[in-house]
Amino acid sequence: MTRTIAVIPGDGIGPEVVASARTVLDALDRRHGLDLGYETFDWSCRRYAETGAMMPADGLETLSRFDAILLGAVGWPGVPDHVSLWGLLIPIRRAFRQYVNLRPIRVFDGVGSPLRTAEPGAVDLVVVRENVEGEYSEIGGRLNRGFPDEFAVQESVFTRAGVTRIADYAFELARGRRGYVTSATKSNGIVHTLPFWDEVVAERAERFPDVRWDQEHIDALAAKIVLQPDRFDVVVASNLFGDILSDLAAAVAGSIGVAPSANIDPTGTHPSMFEPVHGSAPDIAGRGLANPVGTLWSCVLMLERLGHEKAAAELMTAITTTLRDPRTRTPDVGGSASTADVTAALVELVAGG
Ligand code: NAI
Ligand code: MG
Question: Where would I find the Isopropylmalate dehydrogenase-like domain in this sequence (predicted)?
Answer without folding.
Answer: 4-346
